Amino acid sequence: MNIIEFTCVVWVSSLLAGFVGSLTGLGGGIIITPVLTLAAGVTLAAAVVLFGASVYLIRHGREAPQFRVFKGEPTDLRTLSGVVKDTLAFRGRGLIQLGLRLLIATPVARVAFSVVAFALEGDRLYVVVTLIVLAVLLYSLTGGAYLGS
């Protein structure tokens, strides 16, 4: 996304936020904050994945693929600490995994910022509903690891 596209997205979403805010009585920040969080988060995640893919291809681009033997995901990329360790070691797979985790964290951050925005507006009902949505999101991201084993 270049600067003109980003400016257009911010302008249109600000206009819609003001319109919806005036109709519902909510502040425009309730709408514009999640939109900007999504735009910035997805762009950052895509940039990290692209950088990681570039690093991976520079280091492993000329290797012949081994299609006869299936290799699963390395064990060091299955935990957040392993991903951080591989990222700090400047490994392509670690950078790609970090970008994907940022992409997954973007909607969670949006919901968390919405809780703060609703709390600042003083809307207790929306705070409770958004906290329930946040709890469901966090459970779905962490709960599945404990149920299957």
Rg measurement, Å: 20 Å
- Biggest sheet statistics: none
Number of helices: 5
How many domains comprise the coordinates?
Answer: 1
Shape: elongated
Compact summary:
With 149 residues, this protein is mainly alpha-helical. It has helices at 3-24, 29-60, 80-88, 92-121, 124-147.
Description of the molecule:
This protein is mainly α and 149 residues long. The protein has one domain (3-147). Helix content is 79%, strand content 0%. It contains five helices and no strands. The chain has helices spanning 3-24, 29-60, 80-88, 92-121, 124-147. Helix 2 runs antiparallel to helix 4 (92-121) and helix 3 (80-88) crosses helix 4 (92-121). It is elongated. The N and C termini lie far apart (41 Å). The mean pLDDT is 81.
